[in-house]
Amino acid sequence: MIMDITSLILALFIVYCFCQCLSSANNTITSGQYITDPHTLISPNSVFKLGFFSPQNSSNRYLGIWYLSDSNVIWVANRNQPLKTSSSGTVQISEDGNLVVLDSNKRVVWSSNVTHNIATNSTAKLLETGNLVLIDDATGESMWESFRHPCHALVPKMKLSITQKTYEKVRITSWRSPSDPSLGYYSATLERPNIPEVFYWINETQPYYRTGPWNGQIFIGSPQMSRGYLYGWNMMNDEDDGTVYLSYNLPSQSYFAVMTLNPQGHPTIEWWRDRKLVWREVLQGNSCDRYGHCGAFGSCNWQSSPICNCLSGYKPKYVEEWNRKNWTSGCVRSEPLQCGEQTNGSEVSKDGFLRLENMKVSDFVQRLDCLEDECRAQCLENCSCVAYAYDNGIGCMVWSGDLIDIQKFSSGGIDLYIRVPPSESELEKHSDKRRHKIILIPVGITIGMVALAGCVCLSRKWTAKSIGKINSQRQGMNEDQKQVKLNDHLPFFSFEELVNATNNFHSANELGKGGFGSVYKGQLKDGHEIAVKRLSKTSGQGLEECMNEVLVISRLQHRNLVRLLGCCIEQEENMLVYEYMPNKSLDVILFDPAKKQDLDWPKRFNIIEGISRGLLYLHRDSRIKIIHRDLKVSNILLDGELNPKISDFGMAKIFGGNDMQANTRRVVGTFGYMPPEYAFQGLVSEKLDVFGFGVLLLEIISGRKISSCFDHDQSLSLLGFAWKLWNEKDIQSLIDPEISNPNNVNDIVRCIHIGLLCSQELAKERPLMATVVSMLNSEIVDLPPPLNPAFIKRQIVSCADSSQQNHITQSINNVTVTGIQGR
Ligand SMILES: *[C@@H]1O[C@H](CO)[C@@H](O)[C@H](O)[C@H]1NC(C)=O
Ligand SMILES: *[C@@H]1O[C@H](CO)[C@@H](O)[C@H](O)[C@H]1NC(C)=O
Ligand SMILES: *[C@@H]1O[C@H](CO)[C@@H](O)[C@H](O)[C@H]1NC(C)=O
Ligand SMILES: *[C@@H]1O[C@H](CO)[C@@H](O)[C@H](O)[C@H]1NC(C)=O
Ligand SMILES: *[C@@H]1O[C@H](CO)[C@@H](O)[C@H](O)[C@H]1NC(C)=O
Ligand SMILES: *[C@@H]1O[C@H](CO)[C@@H](O)[C@H](O)[C@H]1NC(C)=O
Ligand SMILES: *[C@@H]1O[C@H](CO)[C@@H](O)[C@H](O)[C@H]1NC(C)=O
Ligand SMILES: *[C@@H]1O[C@H](CO)[C@@H](O)[C@H](O)[C@H]1NC(C)=O
Ligand SMILES: *[C@@H]1O[C@H](CO)[C@@H](O)[C@H](O)[C@H]1NC(C)=O
Ligand SMILES: *[C@@H]1O[C@H](CO)[C@@H](O)[C@H](O)[C@H]1NC(C)=O
Ligand SMILES: CC(=O)N[C@H]1CO[C@H](CO)[C@@H](O)[C@@H]1O
């Protein structure tokens, strides 16, 4: 018996060992071994798999490597030789030591195709990076790597490269379609090895986009690819054979990122954190981004109309064609340059240069080895030099021949100096005027979709949906909607930068605390004051909130919305960086008996009006409607002039096209500011914000918190109290004594009337924000009588006049209400 147990344990132990050996060896194939569909190799960190997959809507089988699931394929072996039937493919090491894919008839459909230095025995290994390497058993050297033969995707540590002498390049090529991985029409390579930049090609021959030269930190022709996009990009130079490599690294192990070229030729970036997709971005250029859109010596400005203009000193080559907006022939010099002319002894003025700001510089740059001051002189001296520019990271750049693919940005880019004859260069002295003129060119009919389709996503499902929507919305943007243009790419701040700026999140810098973390004041190295919202690590909603906020607010620009400057996602930290508001939030002043005197009636009215305009801006756009969902006094920030700015878009919800109302299961918001249809049924519409605005308005006028107690039995809410006074024709007593005087009492009462209309119980009775703004402006004179407001009775049991915050979680009909009580 004892014997039996021992042998059983022994047997188990052996089996266990055997399994261990097997599983640890499961990322390799050695000579004589093979894997068949549907078996896979798994990388040691178990995030990458090598195996057979079928793309969406296709029954073909391909050998590929994917991250987490085969919807994230990063590499395909037999992309042009699909296996037609399922479960027939085999991967093995062939007799000549190559890694091969065989079909069911044992025919080779794909091979790693190493022909020289081939070993008889070799091993294929799937590494932690997702790289599949073929190793010579005898020498241990790698003979072939999938990272050197990319498909459509660039992943960390994979390299784009170009060799100076041979012009040998590593190319990534898009799939033909989402269901066909075969070689597509679009590709990307590293070009111009002297000052490398990335080119995107149609059919490998026709460039359609270039990033502009790399200056050691960024590609200077891609302002939208600012720090966020370039996070971790790296250019390396192998001095021996003059090969330049571009690759990127991740901030930490918990991240993964893939850049793919989609079948339409748009680069797409996906970011994962802790194996969850957190960010997806499809970069789509405007027509100015198209290589050489304005022809030779033409300059493209997306914000001017027409978008193409000849550089100063040049005129359209064919005027008629140019006027028909056919820019292909470009421009020619209109006045000859002085350069090369014989001087007749007498003094002649020399050519000069005209400075153009924020430019994407021309293609075909040459580098001169000289300092900034000499750069201009060197160019002036050589008659074939038509322009120069200087960048600290690159040095002196000069151009001869045609200037092509020049673009003017609204920000970013560098100064470009173009050579002009003496008569023109006179103008240089007045170039300030000229520059203003350039800026004042009327804004074109469409701003439309700008260079960047920044999109932040929380889950794949959500991603696909919202990207689809936002993209389709962009195509048809018109003049009215130009305010809703995207910001240039939102920058990332490094953790260290924010630590420095906030004095290591010193408590003296803390501006406030919310349910999702704390807000700190900070100062950047350049002196800019910022507010940093550091989402607490414990709050599970941190990242989601953060991404939502980035998604919503980075698209918005309005004087009554707080501006987001950037974010930081690093070292388990999620932080958002805003412009700093010197007067903090409205509640700090409004509910402080000493400070509230600063808020006289005109100031309060200005605040009310500002909030209404900010909300109207959020609601007005018929295609992307944004519902804030968490309006409250502490979310209204005040600038130095006490102008209000709506902040905290963590809970905001975006609506597309026709859905004016939606149901949400997760009801988030703040008690007292939530209308009944939302609190109880989860119904979200713009009337939700109208209700919140009504409550805010009454708080601002009464100087009392929604959570205060208003009568002796403490049963009435602020709304109930106002309603009672309204019916008793005693509404004046609601007015904060600080602002009440006989001259303005009528205006104030009118405002209260509007507040009551906004907070009516029935959503359909509440006015739209557009109407509210008209009412406040007195464009609408006669106000309808209000019906009863919601929540006449107090919802919160204790009278909270303390400045503490209470987190409230309640379940109402399966809906969880999480909120933070107003301060
Ligand atoms: C390892 O591979 C073998 C076949 O080669 C397979 O039977 C086994 O399930 C794999 N083990 C793991 C842990 O995937
Ligand atoms: C292997 O190389 C040969 C010759 O260099 C080429 O004709 C063939 O297409 C290559 N096969 C694959 C699968 O790359
Ligand atoms: C290759 O591997 C086989 C079996 O593993 C072995 O018998 C043979 O000797 C090896 N050949 C060389 C050249 O190492
Ligand atoms: C797959 O087919 C379905 C139905 O025809 C279609 O809606 C979907 O867009 C297709 N997906 C791809 C990637 O082609
Ligand atoms: C690329 O070339 C193919 C074949 O010559 C052609 O059918 C296709 O339209 C071209 N693609 C583009 C985007 O021009
Ligand atoms: C634009 O002009 C070029 C050269 O004159 C011509 O080849 C091309 O067809 C024209 N394009 C259009 C759209 O008219
Ligand atoms: C220079 O002098 C020559 C003859 O002496 C004359 O033909 C030419 O026009 C002059 N050029 C200028 C720029 O004055
Ligand atoms: C002038 O510039 C051209 C083109 O950059 C160059 O080939 C030539 O050598 C230069 N000439 C002198 C004298 O520097
Ligand atoms: C932070 O401050 C330290 C010391 O002042 C400095 O060395 C470092 O470069 C700063 N880092 C950033 C990102 O500003
Ligand atoms: C609550 O949820 C359960 C299960 O999801 C469902 O059966 C029930 O009808 C729901 N109750 C209400 C009041 O919606
Ligand atoms: C009421 C209040 O705090 N007002 C301040 C707003 O900010 C300006 C500029 O920082 C100050 O001068 C005001 O005192």
Automatic annotation (TrEMBL):
Membrane topology according to the record: Single-pass type I membrane protein
Name the UniProt record assigns to this protein: Receptor-like serine/threonine-protein kinase
One Gene Ontology cellular component: plasma membrane
Biological processes, Gene Ontology terms: immune response; recognition of pollen; signal transduction
Molecular-function GO term, any one: protein serine/threonine kinase activity
EC number, UniProt record: 2.7.11.1
Domain Apple: 339-421
Gene3D superfamilies, sorted: Bulb-type lectin domain (2.90.10.10), Phosphorylase Kinase, domain 1 (3.30.200.20), Transferase(Phosphotransferase) domain 1 (1.10.510.10)
Subcellular location: Cell membrane
Protein encoded by which gene: LOC100800296
Residue ranges constituting the Protein kinase domain according to the UniProt record: 505-756
EC class name: transferase
Domain Bulb-type lectin per the UniProt entry, residue ranges: 26-147
SMART domains, per the entry: B_lectin, PAN_AP, S_TKc
Pfam family, one: B_lectin
